[in-house]
Amino acid sequence: MIKVGQMNRLEIVKRADFGIFLDADDFGTTLLPNRHVPEGVEIGQYIDVFLYFDSDNQLAATTESPIAKVGEWGMMKVEGVNSTGAFVSWGIKEKDLLVPYSEQRGRLREGQNILVYVYTDKASGRIVGTTKFNKLLDKTPANYKQNQQVDLIIAEKSDLGYKAIVNGTHWGMIFPSDVFGMLFIGKQLKGFIKNVRDDGKINLSLQKIGTAKMDDLSSKILDLLEKKEGFLPLNDKSSPEAIFTAFRTSKGTFKKTIGGLFKLGKITMEADGIRLKK
Which parts of the chain sit beneath pLDDT 50? Predict the structure, then answer.
């Protein structure tokens, strides 16, 4: 079944001087121009292409992969604005993606880099973008458990912290006390549910909460010590950046964890790092 706005595997059915024609099922055939045709392909072979509608509303194919397919979010640059809306570059050279004025949370300007959700407009059947995320999220109860790992997309920054899209279905908040490492709009990363409040709002953490956090980090430290012949050049004097690079955790959590491992007799502390105790 053909899925417009997605990658499809289509059969080559005809060759012409200007490209190859692909079997697009109910859409008939669609042209893949020569500039996108891989070398050595033959009639009868299958090729992976992205399908979209061109400016004439005709089905078009490309081997380029968009920044975001239908149903996905992606960071895109506003290339131009006209009476219809804003046009953003989404990785398809032949066609920019339209974000209509009715789908803009605030007026967009040329040159901006914005987070966009790509979807198919039911009325027109065209692929468009939106920055109005509220209509997409929090439509179902937030049935998450503490320390459940989730996929996050950083969507907004405010004085309260960072607002993130959780598993593509809910809003969540990362407060400044739970932020470490570099966060920026559009960044996709793993996170954890800190708690779901009585009003349904979700608080997030970039690491596990409580003893689960410590146990998880302890295992990572011991495993890495085994791989590094029993020594790591990290201790409670190391920089937060070095600790984050190695374990993606805060310096405070790292210090507590190695302190616990020292008390358990698992490691020894040295001036330039920690050593696995035999």
Answer: none
211-239 pLDDT, tens digit per residue, is 666 677 888 899 899 888 899 999 888 98
Q: How far apart are the first and last CA of the chain?
A: 60
Distance CA 211, CA 240 (A): 21
- The rounded distance, in Å, linking the Cα atoms of 54 and 33 is 13
- Please provide the CATH number assigned to the domain covering 149-205: 2.40.50.140
Alpha helices in the chain (DSSP H): 210-227, 240-247, 251-263
Q: Cα separations (Å) of 23 from 37, 43, 52, 213?
A: 15, 11, 15, 52
Domain boundaries of the chain, sorted by first residue: 7-62, 73-130, 149-205, 210-276
Contact 59, 48 (CB under 8 A): no
* Residues forming beta bridges with residue 259, ordered by sequence position: none
Q: How far apart are CA 95 and CA 89, in angstroms?
A: 8
CATH architecture of 73-130: Beta Barrel (2.40)
Q: What is the CATH number of domain 7-62?
A: 2.40.50.140
Q: Give dist(CA 57, CA 71) in Å, integer.
A: 20
Q: Does domain 210-276 have CATH number 1.10.10.10?
A: yes
CA distance 241 to 248: 9
